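In the previous chapter we treated chains in isolation. Here, by contrast, the input contains two separate entities that must be folded as one system, with a combined length of 806 residues.
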Amino acid sequence: MLSGNEAVARGAWEAGVQVASAYPGTPSTEILEAFALFPNIYAEWATNEKVAVDVAIGAAYAGRRALAAMKHVGLNVAADSFMYASMTGMEAGLVIVSADDPAMHSSQNEQDNRAFAKFARVPCLEPSDSQEAKDLTLAAFDLSERFDTPVLLRLTTRVCHSMSAVELGERRELPAEVKPFPRNPAKYVMVPGNAIKRHPVIEERIRAIAAYAEDFPFNRIEMRGRALGIITAGISYQYAREVFPEASILKLGMSWPLPEKLIRDFAASVERLIVLEELDPFIEEGVRLMGIPCEGKSIFPLTGEFDPFVVRQSAVHAGLLPASVMEAAPAPQIGALPARPPVLCPGCPHRPTFYVLNKLKVPVNGDIGCYTLGLIPPLSAIHTCGCMGAGIAVAHGAAQAGSPERHVAVIGDSTFFHTGIPALLNVVYNQSPVVTVILDNRITGMTGHQQNPGTGQTLLGKEAPVIELESLVRACGIQHVRTLPALDVKEIEKTLREYVKLDEPSVLIVREPCALLPEARKKWMPLEVLTDQCNGCTLCFRIGCPAILKSEELDEKTQRPKALIDASLCTGCEVCAQICPRDAITFRPDSVFVEKERA
Amino acid sequence: MNEVINFLLCGVGGQGTVLASDVLVNVGLAAGFDAKQAEVHGMSQRGGSVSSHVRWGREVHSPIVGLGEADVLLAFEKLEALRNIKSLRSGGVAVINTQVIVPLTVTSGGQKYPSDEEIHAAFAQVTPHVRYIEGEKIAEELGNLRVANVVLLGALSALLEAGDLLAGMNVDAGTWLKVITERVPPKHVELNKKAFQAGREAVLKSN
């Protein structure tokens, strides 16, 4: 049993991939984590997706099979590199994996990256389960070398994170020696004079791949009944099989370019033709451009992800299936339920910063990471968040537009390395008084603890130089730089109050390892509420800690519930203890904060 | 047997829903079924609602279970059980851990956690086959709250044996224990075996 991601990693290894580079991002992260475990390969966490694609391109120029993996929005970051790789081709196979996220389980949008393949004149392969994820990874490398093109391997969350059985194969042996690096400027130096000659080459290439697609073994027709024919690809194939057991299916393992003759033959052999695909009508539009009548998005949703229920319900509405196929779904009468959004964990070192920002009532331009959860009430201290690295420049733009308040940008350590640095340089160069808070939790948190340039370790477990944020920020030209322990509520408040009054840019680095790191877990120690001293003032509920509950006991005077700490969740971060005005929450025996209070 | 048996597992991030579904899919495979599992990683793990899908059958296509299509709802928390009730088919089996994890929207947002009466009434409208298991209490007696998920798997195994979902297919306790043993850290194997047995007994003694 392998997940789709593990199967891609296995396929890459079997294909003889020598170099793989990625930036972590759900749902793609496990591809590199799994690949890194194989022997005799090189794998790395790059600082961002563009860097990852350039690294893979360099390896493929050098004659070694290479892979870069990312989530769908990572390809936006890497688009520039993806486009030139299509223009140049390579000396060895290059596969770019894009893990799309229909329904946005962990993403800011649900863009359909098949459009990138068409845009770049690059073939797109789409597996529908783990076995195909492995098989198509192997096929992608062969295709890449046969046509001198990068190949886009497009996954979706339900392929990445579903487990199904996979048959394993052997690794393709590599020639021991790496050939000298090619000196071929006409192909690899894309100045206008060379690029203008390459453009017709890649247009001809995609026409040749379209011809090859007619016989591509993963494009196949499964003939059953003639009443209904379904063209489908990726995970939607599974729903087609499940919901339409009688229908004939044209299953496209390659969703770009489209095999026109195969589609025409299939269309001619069925009475009604539909296209079943999540998100964009990508295949549907291609089929319509061939002048072949078909239905697709007139029946099935354009947004979100499919499941058997959604597909069945849409099919019944369109008269493709009788209403009797829908079992009456139970519709119990239940009231509105309290939501349970993801929240900052108990002990999260990001919490005090957001508690203070909420108190300061400043506009906060956020970024992508666990700390985006600072948006959730009661912290409610993120006001914009669009993509990786956006916050600092958005704050600068707002400041230059004359926004009347001081803007604070918050960004994590890994995100700062990813795309925060150019934005901070811009703040210094173009001079706005933006306050940037770097939330340094010593790891890439949201995606499940990946190493980054600040952690001192690589993906392969080698020691690495630790990039010091303070020097980096000073080198960017920031004069006001301070580092504080991330759990020190008072000092963070003091510094931020000072920094928002400055007329120059400033950076506050707050540092504390993620509370879920193994070393941090060893220090967990639950705190207690001293019930006699608690008067139910509710202040500690306002830090949004899942470990602080309302007790059954009411304060006699205020008639409000007293606080209660869930010992199974509390890590002993002491943030609640610091803000309690009645000293009703215990500190750790070795607390640094209680000393300060006494002093 | 039915063509495919659909399980929907749900709980709160950190409760071990992912490990439980990993066990469940591998038990299906070990018992000779085709099996698939689907879950979502990332943001939903941070104390939010989580769900995971497992399917066993002769041939399994979709890795996920649609609304009203789950034969079994295995819920590790009561509010999450209610949140996912529409996934359960009429007459399906619900195995519900009585544990309560109060969401922040209740602690600091003034929303109300549903009462036991509301939960019981809602499930009674869907199916008579509802089993409430005191997973948290049993796990606490065993000395580790984190094995509540395996207690629930034990209860599920006993219910599957007693019910007609498997229709003759044999998935015995030994298969479950073997898969669990392979999937927990060596030093926790004994504890997890005990948790599994305790879950089975909770069902068997009440039958």
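The longest helix of chain B spans residues 189-204. The CA atoms of residues 116 and 133 of chain B lie 13 Å apart. Compare these points with the single-chain example from earlier in the chapter.
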